[in-house]
Amino acid sequence: MPEITRDEVAHLATLARIDLDDAELDHLAPQLSVILESVASISGVAGDDVPPTSHPVPLTNVFREDVVRPSLTPEQALSGAPASEQQRFAVPRILGDEQ
Amino acid sequence: MSDTLVAFDDVLASYDPALGLEVHVELNTATKMFCGCPAVFGGEPNTQVCPTCLGLPGAMPVVNGKAVESAIRIGLALNCEIAEWCRFARKNYFYPDMPKNFQTSQYDEPICFEGWMDVDVDGETFRVEIERAHMEEDTGKSLHVGGATGRIHGADYSLVDYNRAGIPLIEIVTKPIRGAGAKAPAVARAYVSQLRDLIVALGVSEARMDQGNLRADVNLSLAPKDSGTLGTRTETKNVNSFRSVERAVRYEMQRHAAILDSGGAIFQETRHWHEDTGVTTSGRPKSDADDYRYFPEPDLVPVAPSREWVEELRGTLPENPVERRARLQAEWGYTDLEMRDVVASGLLGPIEETVAAGASAQAARKWWIAELTRRANDAGVDVVDLGVSPAQVAAVQALVDAGTINDKLARQVFDGLLAGEGTPEEIVAARGLAVVSDDGALGAAVDAAIAANPDVADKIRDGKVAAAGALIGAVMKEMRGQADAARVRELILEKLA
Q1: I want to staple B52 with a disulfide (CB 3.0 to 4.6 A). Which of B59, B69, B444, B466 is the partner?
Q2: Cα A69 from chain centroid?
Q3: Average pLDDT value for residue range B460-471
Q4: How far apart are CA B247 and CA B331, in angstroms?
Q5: Which fold has domain B439-495?
Q6: Is residue A96 part of a domain?
Q7: Which residue from B94, B284, B305 is facing A97, i.e. has the nearest CB?
Q8: SS (H, E, C) B68-116
Q9: What is the domain-level CATH number for residue A22?
Q10: Residue A81 located in a structural domain
Q11: pLDDT band at residue A1, thresholds of 50, 70 and 90?
Q12: Cβ–Cβ of A68/B37 closer than 8 Å?
């Protein structure tokens, strides 16, 4: 398991919108490596006959009927919003592009 | 600042274009992809939201079975393989159009893959290979407030409505389409148009491009002619009409060629299409921020459609499009040329519906191809987005067939329909458009025309019946077109017998 570099931690922090200063990066980068190594040790235990598992419960095809259920009222929906206007969620100015 | 463009023919002398199309289809399920909120268009802001589609803590998504069914039917209609087992994945990004900070999508396990669709362009068939069709959810709608332009740049803040967030989407991605050459723009348009026909025939979406039910992203690259390679592509987003798909491909071909001719390089980037000016502008370059850190969605179990279910759904598919075109042409008695125009205009479906609503095939073709297409071109929209429905066209033709109006008056009825003045019958009444076949009023006009044109009248008395045309014209003018021309002719001949 290759060590996770300080640059990679900085990149991840940027992607996750977490502002880390140099001291924090120095502190966290080795810790993340340790965590990854610990998780990687599981790979050593699993034999070739154990496939990677994303879902621990052996269930598939859990579907819902296409039937409308009540929505929240706009007042309820917006009640937790820090700011709203015109019955919409107000969010800070967006830089960059729409997805 | 405008881009330098190379003449289209010169592009083809030096380069081979490769196209790729990504089409998002918004399904017409009653509810959203992962919750029971209604998936209808046009509700008041944030009236169709719940803890799940708002991404509130603890809310759990559950897959809409009907959406999976629609995805499989689309895949089968596109000759795809259907995955025996596949998962949803989280596409992580920070943009407030999704309140969860991720979009639930599929990553390396699409439900449908490896298909194809044959596309007719000017009588030539192109096979478009389908890479994949996967399930995902639509995003919310942002309104940008403040700033000079009202567009995203310069906005002071944004207001978000999450009614659309979570509506089921199927994203259909082609493999690179090569070898289309000069027909690349037409192939792109034909693909989107014929894909829309297929979606409509499947009944899985309203498929209205003007309402965003069907949205196309156009990838284009150029490679040196006969090199067999693929160049760097640009992706032009949200090209929202058939016509624009064609124009955007053409524009990007000409723009790429100018850059490559001058020794420059194409940067992989997103571009925006501007319907009004017919140009694309740079969006943003692909960057580190496009690291979406996909991972399997832990809150949704895998989808594993049984082969029995897939075969059952295969049995519900509409007729194969190629066979359907051949059948309709035979039923309608159109010439090859007429049929080609209809298919190229994306009017197969509307004409079929118009005929089903009672109009003759020739009448339906006349109104859609001649009258409505001209109006759509004048308005700069696709004819299917003009706002006149097949049922309305059939209703107008029924009034013509009944002798209530003639073709000339029918055009005024279309004016009324486009102005939202009600049903064809209401428009005829409100505008006073019905033809006059009342002999009293017509007789007076005929007498006046005869009196005003004694020479013509004499000719008719002498048996030169063909001369009646001049008198009919005079009467029609007098009646402002609202006369039954056949009855006018009868009256003239009676009076001059």
Answers
A1: B59
A2: 28
A3: 85
A4: 33
A5: Arc Repressor Mutant, subunit A (1.10.10)
A6: no
A7: B284
A8: HHHHHHHHHHCCCEECCCECCEEEECCCCCCCCCEEEECCCCCCEEEEE
A9: 1.10.20
A10: no
A11: low
A12: yes
> Which of the residues B159, B162, B303 would you substitute to probe the A interface, choosing the one with the greatest number of A C-beta atoms within 10 Å?
B159
Q: Give residue ranges of A with CB < 8 Å to any B CB.
A: 11, 14-15, 17, 54-55, 57, 59-74, 77-78, 80, 84-94, 96-99
B292-301 pLDDT, tens digit each: 889 999 999 9
What is the domain range of residue A13? 6-45
Minimal CA–CA distance to B227: which of B19, B10, B14? B14
Say yes or no for a CB contact (<8 Å) between A88 and B92.
Answer: no
For chain B, the average pLDDT equals 91
The CA distance from B66 to the nearest CA of chain A, in Å, is: 6
Q: Chain A residues with CB inside 8 Å of B157's CB?
A: 90-93
Q: Mean pLDDT, to the nearest integer, of A61-67?
A: 97
| Total Cβ atoms within 10 A of residue B252 | 30
Which region among B50-54, B230-234, B440-444 has the lowest average model confidence (pLDDT)?
A: B440-444
Q: What residues of A are in contact with residue B284 (Cβ under 8 Å)?
A: 96-97
Find the helix packing angle between B336-344 and B321-332, rounded to 10°: 130
Token pair of A74 as six digits: 């706009």
Substitution target in A17, A89, A95 with the highest count of B β-carbons within 10 Å is A89
Helix residue spans in B274-344 (DSSP H): 307-314, 321-332, 336-344
Across the interface, do B162 and A89 touch by the CB < 8 Å criterion?
yes
- The identity of residue B344, as a single letter, is A
**Average per-residue pLDDT for chain A:** 87
Token reading at B419: 């102005």
Q: Is residue A38 part of a domain?
A: yes
Chain A residues in contact with B30 (beta carbon < 8 A): 66-68
**Number of domains chain A contains:** 1
CA distance B363 to chain A (A): 40
Tell me how far apart the alpha carbons of residues A52 and B372 are, in angstroms, rounded to a whole number.
Answer: 58
Count of CB atoms situated within 10 Å of the CB of B278: 13
On whether the CB atoms of residues B86 and B131 are closer than 8 A, the answer is: no
Angstrom distance (rounded) from CA B145 to CA B158: 6
| pLDDT > 70 in chain B, percent | 97
More confident: A2 or B450: B450
B122 φ/ψ sector (left φ>0, alpha ψ -120 to 50, else beta)? left
- d(C-alpha A73, C-alpha B370), whole Å: 48
Q: How far apart are CA A64 and CA B13, in angstroms?
A: 55
A88 occurs within a structural domain: no
By C-alpha distance, the chain A residue nearest B283 is A97
Q: How far is CA B452 from the centre of its chain?
A: 52
Contact B159 A98 (CB under 8 A): no
pLDDT of residue B152: 56
Give this complex's ipTM. 0.86
